[in-house]
Amino acid sequence: MREGRLIGACIQRLLRRRIVRYALVGAIGIPINLLALALFKHIFTERLYVLAVVASFEVSTTINFVLNQTFTYSEQRHLQGWDWPKRALKAQAASSSGLLLQVLLSLTFKYGLHMNGYVAQVLGITIVFFYNFVVSNRLVFRPAPAPPPPAPASSVSEPDAAR
To answer: How far apart (Å, rounded) are the C-alpha atoms in residues 26 and 28?
Structure first.
């Protein structure tokens, strides 16, 4: 019983670390990406493998954005109205550089090193993980700006309304 509580406490401590939550979301995104890649390879055929990689990246990036917003950065509840779509567009823009790196790595592994396309995809995603975390943390999932300090009380009194 005591060991169970100890393990539970360790897991809770780990989950307090944002990078661990981000990694868990990323780990969920890998099978989603691979399933989407299989679907898009079927639709586009092997000749358009690059297009299949990009399309699968978009699917998993969109799902990861929602999961990161609700789980990894759950304390950021300040978003209202159009804030979610604006942040999603920022996430897509920030992910574009990660996409470029990931695609270049995946293609290098697949065509340069003759690896299986799915293995190449997982390696590309894994290598770009830390880059994506830093970019997302600094550019996309920024906390709400602090409210401005209250204006100091004026030393000049208001004119009398009775005059």
So the answer is: 5
